Amino acid sequence: MRELLRAYFSRRTLVSIYNLFFTLSRKLLTSFPLSLLMPKSNDDDVAESEAVPLLDLVKPSLPISCPIKALQDLKSRSYFDSFHFQFNRSTVPLRRDSDCLPNRPRVLVCHDMKGGYVDDKWVQGCENEAGFAIWHWYLMDIFVYFSHSLVTIPPPCWTNTAHRHGVKVLGTFITEWDEGKATCKEMLATKESAQMYAERLAELATALGFDGWLINIENDIDEEQIPNMKEFVSHLKKVLHLSTPGALVIWYDSVTVRGNLQWQDQLTELNKPFFDLCDGIFMNYTWKESYPNLSAEVAGDRKFDVYMGIDVFGRGSFGCGQWTVNAALDLLKRNNVSAAIFAPGWVYETAQPPNFHTAQNKRRWILLVCMCFLSRWWSLVEKSWGIVQTYPQVLPFYSDFNQGFGYHVSLEGRQLSEAPWYNISCQSLQPLLEFNEDNKDIIQVTVDAREASFNGGGNIVFRGKLKGDAYFTTRLFKPHLQLSSSPITISYSVKSDETSNLGILLSFSSPSLETKSILVAPEDPIRRFDDMSLQCLTTSVQTVSEWTVHEASLVMDGHTLTEISAFCYRPENSTKSAEFVALLGHISVKDHVQNQQNPEILLPASSWVIEAHNVELVPGNSSSNILRVKLEWRQKDLEESAFTRYNVYAENVKSTDLRPRKVLEKPKSETVLLGIAHVPAYYVAELVVESDVKAVRFMVQACAEDASLGKLDEALNLLVELEGLSVNHD
User: Fold this and answer.
1) What's one GO BP annotation on this UniProt entry (predicted)?
2) pLDDT per residue over 447-505, tens digit each?
């Protein structure tokens, strides 16, 4: 109900409505059973109360992300006793060059998707390939995960992929309504209590690997407690900066220094004291045209720390948000302040455009159209603000264009699973694709998860018209890679017919700022296109899955790689007018040392420790049981694992011979991919085992940053014997 109201009414109106409703509902609670008061939901609209299941967080269960809803739970640190705690740690560190925010106007994006914790709450992923995702990370500096719970902890999938792209991630601490006023009264009772709660928030961010907090106090505060509120903010900033260099505390323009809930919409003497104590302020989104410039004048040399809010739903926002969001962005850019984009999921939530219901396959059609319109909407941001993140900046570089969801999972061109999936942690570095909706006569460039994949579930599809003597180029990445005298190796995979060729065009800048382009391609198109680049021929290897892997090496000592583009062309003397279709499966760049096999991948299984915990066998159907087990592993003599991704497999053992498998011994039965872990642990929740299965062998395959994998037959493995396990009928 709250989310529905927020879509149509201003916040000021909602405060009055909600407080009246809350007072009445307290009186009704003693007269009606709780089940009658719980909200109902359907497949298309998941209420927040149902998004986070009610369960005992200490007991083993499928790992989830969830908020902390009570001040007492924050105080007691009970979150750290949760079974789910270790699964919620982000393992991808923030890119080193992103520790300090750039000295320019910035873009903050505030997630607000159906109350939060929807498909993204499933830490190990789920089967809804139509779940909400963001892949335009190159257009933002900060990402805030938002919900209306007291302590909103970002699911690790968002932190992992944002960090991979150089974007900081903040959680949200929010108090609202009369409940929030009571919470603030307790939290700010003394200076010591204010400091203690600040330390609890700092501890959570540091332990879970995200980068700070948005503080949003949406209720009145007793004026005598304002000094303690200031202490809370300043102490949080101090402790966070000590534990996590580069961390941020951002204040939301809500309560004033007089204790009144009175949105200012600009930087004034009533909210500037909080701004002075933290790293930035997120302005409420009902500002007027003159307010950005006035706020910049008040902020002085900190004007880039002023983030003017833009509500994409358009509720009172300058320019009305939605498809005219660029009106507000253009104004902010001209006034040299930062932007805070609230609820970009509007495109997804409102299913733009509305007339999808006639499609034969509604679910897949909605996903495809939403992806198209998300790209179109984000193109407005790019045109207005420009690209703010350039990557890669270090080697090795690898991307398989995985957007964090798909219809299948592949490994080196072999399809391992046909099941749909969603796990944003699996998102690889995203290409900076240009949106070309208006030009239908050129090659269309899309990521299409329905098509074949070389690795994971992503690709880039090039489809359209191309004459025999023409070529087509399009931007893929905007790196800033300074190269040494060590050779670099470029490899990429392609799936196409003999009439559609695909190369990689690399652009370099020399120390004297001269530009140079080199075309990496398997054939010799340079005679036709000799006006544009040098050429480096590749060696090519065809795989059993119709993918061809091309590879080339070159030395560019002292040069900087500044752009990676795709180059589409026809074979020489081609007369066919058939549609051009080519799939790009992956691209990687390594230096000579990194191109050698990663020694960490080749560590023998004896260098690892793997254990099974919380093993449980429960009844399935008449001829099967269900195995539940938590797997944990680590490298010996290392406190933290060197890897951030592991493929987890299972193999049923029906033979009575349960001896450990020899390193090079072939599996006796089918090996099934269970899932992908991003911490050195995985919970197997519902593994069906038939009555003739004597044991299950679990295998864990570490995956390096450049996608290098050890052989599965040599992977870390653990045999869990089922004989002797009692079946739990509870």
Assistant:
1) N-glycan processing
2) 999 999 999 999 999 999 988 788 899 999 999 999 998 999 999 999 999 889 999 99
Q: State phi, psi for 176 to the nearest 5 degrees.
A: -140, 155
| In the predicted structure, residue 67 carries a pLDDT above the cut 70 | yes
What pLDDT, in 10s, does the model give residues 639-679? 777 788 999 999 999 875 555 554 434 444 589 999 999 99
The tokens for 86 are: 């270790």
Residue among 475, 559, 552, 547 at smallest CA distance from 509: 559
Which tokens hold the place of 48?
């927040």
Query: How many other C-beta atoms are found inside a 10 Å radius of the C-beta of residue 286?
Result: 18
Contact 473, 504 (CB under 8 A): no
Distance, C-alpha 707 to centroid of its chain: 18
CB of 181 closer than 8 Å to CB of 15: no
User: 553 in helix, strand or coil?
Assistant: strand
The SS3 of residue 279 is: coil
Cis peptide before 396 (omega within 30 of 0): yes
Cβ-based burial of 81 (10 A; exposed 0-12, middle 13-18, buried ≥19): exposed
Pair of tokens at residue 267: 């930087």
Helix residue spans in 244-344 (DSSP H): 272-275, 291-299, 325-334
Contact 265, 284 (CB under 8 A): yes
DSSP structure class, residue 667 = P
Confirm if 153 and 201 have CB atoms less than 8 A apart: no
* Main-chain phi, psi angles of 81, to 5 degrees: -90, -5
Please state, in angstroms and rounded to a whole number, the distance separating the CA atoms of residues 530 and 692.
66
Tell me if 352 sits within 8 A of 375, measured CB to CB.
Answer: no
pTM: 0.89
CB-based contacts of 639-642 (< 8 A; 24+ apart in sequence): 641/91, 641/680, 642/600
Tokens found for residue 149 = 């719970």
At 181, is the secondary structure helix, strand, or coil? helix
Residues 205-259: pLDDT tens digits?
Answer: 999 999 999 999 999 999 999 999 999 999 999 999 999 999 999 999 999 999 9
**Interatomic CA distance for residues 663 and 646, integer angstroms:** 19
